[in-house]
Amino acid sequence: MSNNHYNLQEKLVAGYDIAFDQDGVCGKRIASRLHEIAQIGLTDDNGSNRPGFSQGERLAKQLVAQWMKEAGLSVTIDGAGNVFGRLEGKDKNAKIILSGSHVDSVPNGGHFDGPLGVITALEVVEAWRKTGYQPEKSYEVVVFTDEEGSRFNSGFHGSEAVTGKGNIDEKLQLTDQAGVTFSEVLASVDLSVKGYQQAVRNLDDYELFIEVHIEQGKRLEKENLACGVVTGIAGPCWVEFTFTGQAGHAGNTPMNDRKDALIVASEFIQRVPSIPVTISSSAVATVGKLAVKPNGVNVIPGEVSLYVDMRDITRENQEQVVEKVVEAAQQIAEKHGVQLSYEEKIRISPVPIEAEFQALLAKSLETNNISPYYLPSGAGHDAMIIGEKVPAAMLFVKSKNGVSHHPDEWSDLNDCVQAVHVLKTFLENSQ
Known about the structure:
- The chain has 14 helices and 15 strands.
- With 431 residues, it is of the alpha/beta class.
- It starts with 7 loop residues before the first helix and ends with a helix.
């Protein structure tokens, strides 16, 4: 049973500077809405539990749809469960500007990852309504379904439906931990495979997508800045490396006559962190999911398999990281006389943010008395999927201690409200 006494709104408004309530933007409303969403799927640890395609996610989307209607938006829900709220612009022939995020969460996650992007996008509409402003271009607020992917260990199902990305036959093979299939999960929230396939949109009608999201890192906190301009969204490449030596008895095999696969893998693991920094400041590489065989206490490891997750915000840099890591594995295997095999498991193209949108965001930050700061996004977002079809931009909001996907995830209300002002300025300057 969840703790129904947890009051996120109270915690948010406690240190709020009312001076940020300007031009129709209301900090208390933002806090109240974050709180209301947080009550859906609230865990014993005061975290969020709204997996994609769950009743909790569905209820949160229905709540946002209600707020959209109250704000005067025309609301549609597509066959993937994505919610779109549209504010008509003065120029019916102009391309649409889209903003939003998601409301699903990882199990026992935080209250800001996703919902903040949805609520900030909607708060701009509330501010415009209060001040009587109508944009030239139509503006849509979107809530994408299942960004996190905690149900099937593969996310972005909502944004992939909108873009037509993803192999439906592969999706139909997916099952969750309980063995429930993708089509059965859709049916559990009154969706269907046919409807999901029909959710694809003509994205030629859209000029850009901008997503506000918590940083999930410490850079903005170290700079003491409320918000920052995202320069690009890193695409991950996962490669499985297998070092094959020779298993043997730990007592009867001399140290000078061994082919210990774990020793070789260890040298490789130590080498990996030094590679990304030789390519760019935004490149990263992480070793994970290690398997040792035979994995006995008194047996020399004969085979070690491990995964390396490599990312950067441009395709060229991403490729360079992969090439150099593979090269390092080959050199180390050859040095020790063991066999090496490797297999690429996944590669997602990075999404660089166009310079003109970075500049426009920087100008919007300056307008709101925030020094422009540029940083990459190492994590994937719906903007990464939409950005393959439509120019995308992202604004990051300061995260306390860089914590995310955890009940301790926190962004100060002062920073959240400043992000609304920056987004509002950006959207008005994009008219």
